[in-house]
Structures are given as structure tokens and as C-alpha cells.
Design goal:
alpha/beta, N-(1-d-carboxylethyl)-l-norvaline Dehydrogenase, domain 2, six-stranded parallel β-sheet, binds nicotinamide-adenine-dinucleotide
Length: about 300
């Protein structure tokens, strides 16, 4: 079993770290928040007081941090991973950061003699706890093969997406699609309801017709048809508006950098921005449904 360092034990990292421990990996756990470290210790990890003691002598360093600037400081800070991990360690960053940040970090990490992967996840907190995440991995084939067992302890589907940054590219495009499809699903259910259809009736038809999508069948934003969906618990997350907005910002920036037109992606970004400004950042991203139900303007998006 590999000796692991796990840095960033928040909503996602806490469950991921616990699953690595349950799979038999010795894990040293570090977070700026001591309570997060205590929880990892309760799950069987060894506490580390700082990054240096977390990564000393380890085989693999896993980071699960809020954004690119945190990954940058944890990797490249004076007391960071590159300063203290053995050159033989594989660095796996599971945070969601921009494609550009991931590629820049990989170039710098590899120049320092380390191997690395960007390995963002899809699945959310429940999947992190259950060990059923989907990993989208960018980096060399050899590094991917080295990471397989470790990632397999935290996830069910592990995809090699190609070169460094390609994991983030897959995550970015996927989550833009999710944001757009959730809004589209909300609009369709709201329209059907206003036209006199029960949500369950529309669900039964559309989930077997050409409008079918994950936002509908796994996460229906109208209360009722999918009992586990946040729509049945006052839109408590789930996947928060703030997280979707972060991912759509990354998509907006990636589109600007690559020249890919994303008019629907930009519209989705604008809508989630407005939900955040309305104080709904902590609600589930399917709360769009509730907002539409309270609106009578068919061109609300343009007039806002
Ligand atoms: P979180 O804020 O709950 O956890 C981040 C943790 O990192 C915190 O415990 C924080 O104290 C720690 N941290 C920050 N800076 C640090 C530093 N310099 N050194 C050590 N620890 C530090 O965030 P989360 O919900 O666990 O998300 C983590 C990443 O996963 C994000 O990039 C997010 O976009 C991505 N993600 C989240 C979800 C989700 O549903 N929450 C789903 C998919 C992907």
C-alpha cells in the first residue's frame, strides 16, 4: 500500500481521506482547519501539523482544495509540497481549478522533477463519502497507471482524459453542460406545470422521451418524481449555487481563452450569478425551479 499525504480535508476531502484509510492506505492528513484534521484522525488517518510533515517520505500527495490559488500556495509555497516531498512522490490534485492553472502547475511540478496528475471529480459530497466519485484525469499514461489503485479507493469510474490539464478540461465542459441542462430542465417542468401537467406526469413522459437527461432523471428539480433530489428538502444542497457558479466562471474563462463560443454557458453563468446576488448561494443549484415558479415573465433572463 502506498504511503499517502492528504491535504484539504473539507466537505469532499474528508470522505475521500476516510475511504483511503478504509482501503488500508497509511494516510497523513493536513488541513488549515484543525477540526477537519480531527475528523480525519477519527477516521483512522495520522495527523500532520504542517505540509512538510504530511509529505515527508510519502509515495503520493493528494490535494483537495477550494481553488487554484490554494493549490498554487500548497504546491509552491516556501513550506509547500515541492519544498518537502521526495522527488519520487506522485502529486495528484483533485481540486477543481482552471485548465490553464492546471497546465502551468504541471509544467512547474515536472520541471522540479515530480510526476503529477490533475484529477478533478464529479459526484459531490455523498459520492466522496461513499467512494463512488468519477475521476477525470490529465497527465502521462505512466502517472495514470501509478494512480489507479489510489483513485480506485475513492471512486467508481476513473477516466484518463489525456495530457496535463485535460482532466480539468473534461470537468469544465461537463459542469457547464450540467448547469445549462439543469436550467433547461427547470424551464421545461415549469412550462409543463403552467400548461396544466402534473410534474409526475411530465416526468413519466419526458424521462422516456427525447428530453431525458441526468438533471431530470437523477436530480429532478420539481419536487416529487425523484425522492432523493434536493427539490424535496427545500433545495438544501446537494450541489450549491456557489459551486455551480464557480464552475461556470471557469467555463467562461476557458471559453474566452480558447475562443469557443458558449452562449448558453454564459446565460447559465448570468443566471447563477443572479441567484448568488439574491442570497441563494448556499441553496442547491436546482433552486432555479423555485425562482421560475415565482416569475411570470417569459423573458426574465433578458430583462433582469
Ligand atoms: P471545502 O471548502 O469544504 O474544503 C476545502 C478544504 O481545504 C478546507 O477544509 C480548507 O480548510 C482546506 N484548505 C484551504 N487552504 C488550505 C491550505 N493552504 N492548506 C491546507 N488546507 C487548506 O471544499 P470542498 O467542497 O471539499 O471542495 C474541494 C474541491 O472539490 C473544490 O475545488 C471544489 O470545486 C471541488 N468539488 C466540490 C464538490 C462538492 O460538491 N462540494 C463536487 C465536485 C468538486
Amino acid at each position: 500500500m502506498s504511503h499517502l499525504a492528504f491535504i484539504g480535508l473539507g466537505n469532499m476531502g474528508g470522505g475521500m481521506c476516510a475511504n483511503l484509510v478504509s482501503s488500508g492506505h497509511p494516510v497523513r492528513a493536513y488541513d488549515l482547519n484543525p477540526e477537519a484534521v480531527d475528523q480525519a484522525v477519527a477516521a483512522g488517518a495520522t495527523p500532520a501539523l504542517d505540509i512538510a510533515s504530511a509529505v515527508a517520505g510519502c509515495d503520493v500527495v493528494i490535494t483537495m482544495l477550494p481553488a487554484g490559488k490554494h493549490v498554487h500556495s500548497v504546491y509552491f509555497g516556501d513550506q509547500g509540497v515541492l519544498a518537502h516531498a521526495p522527488r519520487t512522490a506522485l502529486l495528484i490534485d483533485c481540486s477543481t481549478i482552471s485548465v490553464g492553472e492546471a497546465r502551468d502547475a504541471a509544467t512547474r511540478v515536472q520541471a522540479a522533477g515530480f510526476d503529477c496528475l490533475d484529477a478533478p471529480v464529479s459526484g459531490g459530497v455523498a459520492a466522496a463519502q461513499a467512494g463512488t466519485l468519477t475521476f477525470m484525469v490529465g497527465g502521462s499514461e505512466a502517472a495514470f497507471e501509478r494512480a489507479r489503485v489510489t483513485l480506485g479507493s475513492m471512486g467508481k469510474n476513473i477516466f484518463h482524459a489525456g495530457r496535463s490539464g485535460n482532466g480539468q478540461a473534461a470537468k469544465c465542459a461537463n459542469n457547464m453542460l450540467l448547469g445549462i441542462s439543469m436550467i433547461a430542465t427547470c424551464e421545461a417542468f415549469n412550462l409543463a406545470e403552467k400548461l396544466g401537467l402534473e410534474s409526475q406526469t411530465f416526468f413519466d413522459i419526458a424521462s422516456k422521451a427525447s428530453g431525458q437527461c441526468w438533471s431530470m432523471t437523477a436530480y429532478c428539480p420539481a419536487p416529487g418524481p425523484v425522492p432523493s433530489a434536493p427539490s424535496n428538502r427545500q433545495y438544501e444542497p446537494g450541489f450549491a449555487v456557489a459551486m455551480m457558479l464557480k464552475d461556470l466562471r471557469l467555463a467562461r474563462d476557458a471559453a474566452a481563452a480558447s475562443g469557443a463560443p458558449i452562449p448558453f454557458g454564459l446565460a447559465a453563468h448570468a443566471r447563477y450569478q443572479r441567484l448568488a446576488e439574491a442570497g441563494l448561494s448556499a441553496k442547491d443549484f436546482s433552486v432555479v425551479m423555485q425562482q421560475l415558479e415565482g416569475s411570470t415573465s417569459p423573458i426574465e433572463e433578458d430583462s433582469a
